Automatic annotation (TrEMBL):
Any GO molecular function: D-xylulokinase activity
Cross-referenced CDD domains: ASKHA_NBD_FGGY_NaCK-like (cd07772)
Source organism (scientific name): Mucilaginibacter limnophilus
Family: Belongs to the FGGY kinase family.
This protein's name: Carbohydrate kinase
Single GO cellular component term: cytosol
Keyword terms of this UniProt record: Kinase, Transferase
Domain called Carbohydrate kinase FGGY C-terminal: residue spans: 247-436
GO BP annotations listed: xylulose metabolic process
Upper taxonomic lineage: Bacteria, Pseudomonadati, Bacteroidota, Sphingobacteriia, Sphingobacteriales
Domain Carbohydrate kinase FGGY N-terminal: 7-222
Length: 461
């Protein structure tokens, strides 16, 4: 038998850096992961060890090229967003990879908004809530104002996925999924960089824009490869759903944040939506994706810990907790759901509840889930207004939580609610984005396993 044709995908998270090889059926045939200790920047703030990451890409590529059972046809990258690498005309990084949680100087922020418009105005025009360093465009503005000598030598400011691609190709590009990641760079109405980017001359520091399915030819270890330009990870995770489902849908991606993604709503964000933490992404084909966020996963972890400690229970058992309709009926009488007429997403109420009011931990746990779902409904509803959507797919941690899923089905009785399951959605999406460049087979339609939740009980389909 000959070597198996594969694509190599680097999936770079804040904590774990993973490399996958996928065969033409998108089955994982090889994987490895690495973790690097953070270093500090010149201010003593923690940041990514960029040199370790760079070396890891080359070392990992050499390792898999030595595996004779695989024929590597292509490589692509997905990484976390809101992170720039500033390179000079030799391709050398000029600064540390600054952390997007790094505190932003108040004087520079104040000067920016005084010059170009209020936070609300910029947010409306760029579909990016004001998030300081998480608005990665403001990181470039900061560099220009705080380190002008360094800025002067910047040939290109590359988002992290494009920098990793550049390492193999030597070609610099900007991809739309990274621009569309709450950067405060892009004017969605004008389909161009915001006027502040032109006014500051910062546009000259950005490489040419290409769509997320762009590929380049490169040579590595005397072999010709197709190399993708790289993708923002949240946008990459949406790709398998866009490929597999053609009826309108919303994807509720759950983890620390619960992010509701509506790829069929291209209307501009309203002031109310921005106030409620809505934003726009840009998917790999260049179309906007309306999104809303809720800090539900984090709040869940904090409150489950509180419940477990109070009732003397192991919190691991809650992951296996089954939906109990009798407990819900009791809680509905005890704590009637308050209709949210303001359409605002409020803090999850459970943090303020007195645990002495609950008979046992399961009662408290079900109320926690009710409180989460109440705000999840408000958050997801923000991106459903007027959209012809009848299906909600849930992936990530809460998709495996039957209490969450059953209550979500009750909260959206007019919708079909599915728990979606697939291994490594971000990495699969990154491979699918350049399918035609490396894969001789049709795009698969069976990548995602679905479990349907009705108002009464879940049914496998």
């Amino acid at each position: 038998m000959g070597a198996t044709p594969v694509i190599a995908v680097f999936d770079v998270g804040k904590t774990n850096k993973k490399l996958f090889l996928f065969d033409e059926h998108y089955k994982i045939v090889y994987e490895k992961s690495a973790r690097f200790n953070e270093i500090t920047d010149e201010d003593g703030d923690p940041c990514e060890n960029l040199e370790s990451l760079r070396q890891s890409v080359f070392n990992s590529m050499r390792e898999v090229f030595n595996l004779k059972e695989f024929d590597i046809k292509a490589v692509n990258f997905s990484t976390y967003g809101a992170s720039f690498v500033y390179i000079d005309d030799k391709g050398e990084a000029l600064t540390p990879l600054y952390n997007y949680l790094k505190a932003y100087p108040e004087d520079i922020k104040e000067h920016f908004y005084q010059t170009y418009g209020s936070e609300e105005e910029i947010a409306m025009q760029t579909a990016s809530p004001a998030l300081a360093s998480l608005n990665s465009g403001l990181q470039v503005y900061r560099l220009k104002n705080q380190q002008p000598e360094v800025y002067k030598h910047v040939k290109f400011a590359l988002h992290l996925p494009q920098y990793l691609s550049y390492l193999l190709t030597g070609k610099a590009f900007t991809d739309m999924t990274s621009i569309g990641c709450h950067t405060a760079l892009w004017n969605f109405a004008n389909n161009d960089y915001h006027h502040w980017v032109h006014q500051e001359g910062i546009k000259e520091k950005f490489a040419p824009i290409v769509p997320g399915d762009e590929v380049m030819t490169a040579n590595f270890e005397e072999k010709t490869l197709q190399v993708g330009v790289g993708l923002h990870d949240s946008s990459a995770a949406l790709i398998p759903y866009l490929v597999n489902f053609h009826e309108p849908f919303v994807l509720l991606s759950t983890g620390t944040w619960s992010i509701s993604l509506n790829p069929v709503d291209h209307t501009p964000l309203t002031a109310d939506e921005l106030k409620n933490d809505c934003l726009n992404y840009i998917q790999y084909k260049g179309l906007p994706v309306k999104a809303s966020r809720l800090f539900a996963g984090y709040e869940y972890e904090q409150q489950v810990k509180r419940i477990g400690e109070y009732f003397g229970q192991n919190t691991a058992s809650y992951k296996r907790a089954e939906f109990d309709a009798s407990i819900i009926a009791l809680l509905e009488k005890k704590y009637p759901a308050q209709e949210n007429h303001s359409a605002n997403v409020e803090p999850i109420a459970f943090g303020g509840r007195d645990l002495t009011e609950f008979t046992n931990d399961m009662e408290a746990y079900h109320q926690l889930m009710r409180d989460i779902i109440q705000q999840q409904k408000a958050s997801t509803s923000l991106i459903l207004k007027g959209a012809p959507v009848k299906r909600i797919f849930v992936d990530g941690g809460f998709s495996k939580n039957p209490v969450f899923m059953q209550l979500l089905a009750s909260a959206f009785p007019e919708m079909e609610i599915f728990a979606a399951s697939m291994a490594q959605a971000t990495a699969v999406g990154t491979a699918l984005a350049i399918h035609n460049a490396w894969n001789s087979k049709p795009q698969p339609t069976d990548l995602i396993e679905l479990k349907y939740y009705s108002l009464k009980h879940p049914t496998m389909i």
